[in-house]
Amino acid sequence: MAELQFFTGTMDSGKSTLALQTNHNHAARGRHGRIFTAHDRAGEAILSSRLGLVHEAVEVPADFDFWTYVVDSLTHGGRIDYLICDEAQFYTAAQIDQLAKVVDELQVDVFAFGILTDFRTDLFPGSRRLVELADRMHVLQVEALCWCGKRATHNARTEDGRMVVEGEVIVVGDVDEGGGPPAEVAYEVLCRQHHRRRLTAARAQAVSLAPEPLPFG
């Protein structure tokens, strides 16, 4: 029986690497699949891992319809045994519903990969729907680490080196702040304590290097 499986973890936990490995394993057994992604760090229509592995993929904009895509492919003589869906947190809830329908009605396996929460610690809509619908959910065993050495559980966004908890959920390219120069946007994984305290690696280093106040007297 086909299944909808959701593989999740923080940034740097190897999700895209596992997506590529999953595709390789199934293709090596003679199965035919399609790879999808959205807002990959390497650009449009590319699935990339931080290890340097890349693969062509189908880009998933907000109006993409998985059900129509698979049905059209099968109708025109294509063979699809499974779908690899990376960056699934960026998919809409409706698209996750379409993936569930592909599994149930067409018996096509779906392997979805994505992070659960955004930099504000809110669930992504796509991830929320996957948690609700997935036949199986897997938390990746490769643990990303906070700068302090503890297990990282939260994704943080910094703008010009300062951690922020407000703003657009999806940022592609530069961020324009009030008509001024674009902010430099970066991401970092933190443990819950340091995310709550907004203490990134750079800020922790700055605090440790700050001169101690002189004693009175």
Task: Describe what is shown at a glance.
The protein is of the alpha/beta class and 217 residues long. 28% of the residues lie in helices and 22% in strands.
What does this structure look like?
This protein is α/β, with parallel strands linked by helices and 217 residues long. It has 6 helices and 11 strands. The strands form 3 sheets. Strands 5-2-6-7-1-8 form a 6-stranded parallel β-sheet, with helices on both faces. Strand 3 and strand 4 (54-56) form a beta hairpin. Residues 172-180 have low confidence and may be disordered.
SSE blueprint and pairings:
Blueprint lengths: L3 E5 L6 H14 L4 E5 L8 E3 L5 E3 L1 E2 L6 H10 L6 E4 L7 H14 L2 E6 L10 H9 L2 E4 L14 E6 L2 E3 L20 E6 L1 H5 L4 H9 L8
Parallel strand pairs: 1-7, 1-8, 2-5, 2-6, 6-7
Antiparallel strand pairs: 3-4, 9-10, 9-11
Helix pairs in contact: 3-4
Measured by DSSP, the beta-strand proportion falls in: 15-25%
Biggest sheet record: 6 strands, parallel
Number of helices: 6
Strands in their spatial order, largest beta sheet: 5-2-6-7-1-8
Query: Spans with pLDDT under 50 lasting ≥5 residues?
Result: 172-180
Q: Could you give the order of the helices and strands? A: EHEEEEHEHEHEEEEHH
Distance between the termini: 78 Å
Note the overall shape. Answer: elongated
Number of DSSP E strands: 11
Mean pLDDT: 87
Helix percent band: 25-40%
Structural class assignment: alpha/beta
- Radius of gyration over all CA atoms, rounded: 20 Å
